[in-house]
Amino acid sequence: MYLHIGNNYTVDIRDVVGIFDIENTTVEKCTKKLLERAEKEHHCIYTTYEMPKSFIITMKNGRERVYISLLSAATLKKRLKNGGGF
Questions:
Q1: Who contacts 24 (Cβ-Cβ below 8 Å, separation ≥6)?
Q2: What angle is formed at CA 85 by the lines to CA 73 and CA 60, rounded to 5 degrees?
Q3: Could you tell me the pTM of the whole model?
């Protein structure tokens, strides 16, 4: 099953490590470092050019991806619970 994370982007739910609220988690130093490292290593995928509300970390075949989404973490979690948002 796939999770629709906004603007025609989907991720395989089997690959999702976590869904995080940007506003609440980026106050922590370790989260800032994680996002900075992902950006520097070109692992970030921006699904929007607007103000992001969440980020999704995935891992597939040992490759990390961080998706930056316009959708809130709460919305993404509801979609996940209800079958992926399609």
A1: none
A2: 70
A3: 0.90
